Amino acid sequence: MPSALRDWLDKPNTGRGVHLAADDGGWEFRDYGELASAARRTAGALVEEGVRPGDVVCLILPTDFTCVETYFAVWAAGATVCLITPPLFQDGDDYVAHVAAILRQASPALVVASDGLADYARRAMAGAGLDGEPWRPRQADEEAEVRPAGELALLQFTSGSSGSPRGVMVTWENLEANSELIAREAGYEDGDVVASWLPLYHDMGLIGCFLTPIARQGTLKLMRPDHFIRDPARWLRCFGEAAHTAAPPFAYAYCARRVKPEQLEGLDVSGWKMALIGAEPIDPHTLEVFAQLMEPFGFSRTMFKPAYGMAETTLLVTMDDVPRDPLAVRPDPEALAFGQPVRILDQHTLGPESLGAKAGWVVGCGTPEDDVPVAIVDDEGRELDSGLLGEIVVGGPSACPGYFAGAEAKSTRFMDGKVYTGDAGFFHEGQLFVLGRMGDSIKVRGRSVYVEDLESKIAEVSGLGKGRIVVVGVPGAGRKGLALFAETQDEAWIGGVREMLRRRLGDDVELTIVVGAGLIQRTSSGKPRRRYMWERLQGGHMEGARIIS
Q: Where does the AMP-dependent synthetase/ligase domain lie (predicted)?
């Protein structure tokens, strides 16, 4: 299958390329001619190794030029890319088990790993029952021709850790449609510079800030996440030249907390076009403190582009492409019920009054485009009018066909060419407002944390049997929430569980603990009816339930 995303490999622009952050504070540069040649020689080595069009190739590589070249080498060989996160902050054994679960599902023809990550890869391959050794990137003597590709461009495993990871099948059609949507919504023009520190294994970093600019042979300034954490001012200084970026809300809050104005002396960011915010609920306070830090250097609040997306829709669903200050609203938490009107207690556009507007507030994520239709539906799948709370459903060519190898999720479903997201939201004044997950996961610092994992840990810490515990991700305005249902009258275990969850999730996840008898409702196949249980509690229909504050 031909694809514009690979065209640059045959027609590289040697006047542009990728600037990769170095550990000494400088930048390394390679133009697209060098990158294309290296990718095609690496593709030749992959073909010699037996990789064929349509095969899956898993990459376990740090963000460096070898990763860039190998990624496109897999595409040049006609294969499907599956990028797997390096270990970062995970325990070694937990990381190996997670990678092994991915490998079992992906069934790759080849696992590629750097020297530093080869031992992890070897152990994961053994755990997945795969023979052989991880393949170290190398280049053939001759450049390979770009081969025909199969249907799938990439397998995007949803972020976070879970005992049963799910790989989203992203077709070439999906990827091309979403890349075009991103460029259009961002106002991307030929020659624009993109700056990013986001990891490449995450959909926002991979598709939004890596594949989209490279396919257009734009200039990319790429940092690793640890570069950003050590020196967030280095990222901000990119915007004396760069026009586009994307990051989760915590990154903007981190900059406002860590960066001093004197570190930015002489910087002019007035040419900055787009600072996309996504991957988790957005509170206006975070945006305002960042705006106040950057305003003296030419930043405008209209540069903020709140957005909504997910791996199952390739990436982007909506982004506010109108040059205006973001709109924040505060819904009545007591009136948040599926199928019912959302009562707005207060609203304002971003500005000084946004300071302190954290939990309880949510920011609009723009109006859907015609080629990405978005609907809000009730529990029966009936479309709801504007102002009513329901589940967000996404259609159009960016909607992926499903999970690889028949995997299933409990909240997100694929039906009739649409993605039933498992996210709660509503329309207000033409914009989509997203309250977050309701069901099997929550977003914490840009990664999905699956409730099944939490249930296992809670059962261990509390001493209660796993069958007596159900955790539900619940939506709320400007916050992340969990409800823990425990079939017990005892409360002695609660302190230890709260502390464990605080260490694992941070301080910004609101926890509701419910105890009592007969709380847990299950389907005929024994699966917890998570959203149903939360709605029964909210509606006052859960007899014998006690909420522990």
A: 25-404
- With cut-offs at 50, 70 and 90, classify the pLDDT of residue 442: low
Q: Are 201 and 225 in contact (CB under 8 A)?
A: no
Q: Which of 443, 444, 450, 395 is nearest to 423 (CA)?
A: 443
Report which of 13, 411, 445, 488 is spatially closest to residue 252, judged by C-alpha positions.
Answer: 445
Among 64, 158, 168, CA closest to 117: 64
Which strand (E) or helix (H) includes residue 429?
A: none
* pLDDT at residue number 231: 97
Q: Helix 92-106 to helix 118-127 angle, to the nearest 10 degrees?
A: 60
Q: How many other C-beta atoms lie within 10 A of the C-beta of residue 26?
A: 10
pTM, entire model: 0.84
Sign of the torsion formed by the C-alpha atoms of 191, 255, 352 and 329: positive
Number of H helices, E strands in the chain: 14, 27
Which two tokens mark 26? Answer: 């400088």
Is beta strand 219-222 parallel, antiparallel or unpaired with respect to 17-21?
parallel
Q: Which domains, from first to last, does the chain contain?
A: 4-230 (3.40.50.12780), 323-437 (2.30.38.10), 441-548 (3.30.300.30)
- Residue 526 in this model has a pLDDT that exceeds 90: no
